[in-house]
Amino acid sequence: MTTFESDIKKATYPAEKMFNFLSDFDHFGEVIPKDKINNWQSFGDSCRFSIDPVGEVGLRIVDTEAPKMIKFTAEGKTPFNFFLWIQLKEMAEDDTRVKLTIKADMNPMIKMVASKPIKKFLEVLSDAIANHQY
Predict the structure, then answer these.
(1) Are 3 and 102 in contact (CB under 8 A)?
(2) Looking at the predicted structure, is the pLDDT value of residue 53 above 70?
(3) Which domain of life is it from (predicted)?
């Protein structure tokens, strides 16, 4: 498994408020940067979207630990299997730290092509989560 991690970001909202928002893909779509993905579809506990050059990606929530962690897995026709974690650590009521991690099962060819876009996607998404108005 290959691991990708975002930098730790600071959000100015309580972890519980962020967790409740992010654990529902109907809301999560508001956080996704529209210029980075295409064809967003939400189904409550799962979603689908396209991201270049990776292709179509599906996510489904497989585990949660309120208000600290949401774990997603690949769903449907994806180029590789992976898990995505959103980790929230509340330091104070108006200070929650956000970190995203992806663990992916990639062959060397896919890893070479997808590593840079995945790392960039994690940074863009973690920035969007940290800066969203909840």
Answers:
(1) yes
(2) no
(3) Bacteria
Distance CA 95, CA 7 (A): 16
- By DSSP bridging, strand 81-92 and strand 95-105 are antiparallel
Q: Is the peptide bond before 53 cis (omega within 30 degrees of 0)?
A: yes
3-class DSSP assignment, residue 77: coil
73: Cβ–Cβ under 8 A, 6 or more apart, which residues? Answer: 59, 60, 62, 81, 82, 83, 84
84-105 pLDDT tens trace: 999 999 999 999 999 999 999 9
Tell me, what DSSP letter sits at residue 34? T
Q: Model-level pTM?
A: 0.89
Q: Cβ neighbours of residue 16 under 8 Å, at least 6 residues apart?
A: 66, 67, 90
Q: Which tokens is 29 given? A: 């779509």
Q: Are the C-beta atoms of 46 and 58 separated by less than 8 Å?
A: yes
Q: Is 80 exceeded by the pLDDT of residue 55? A: no
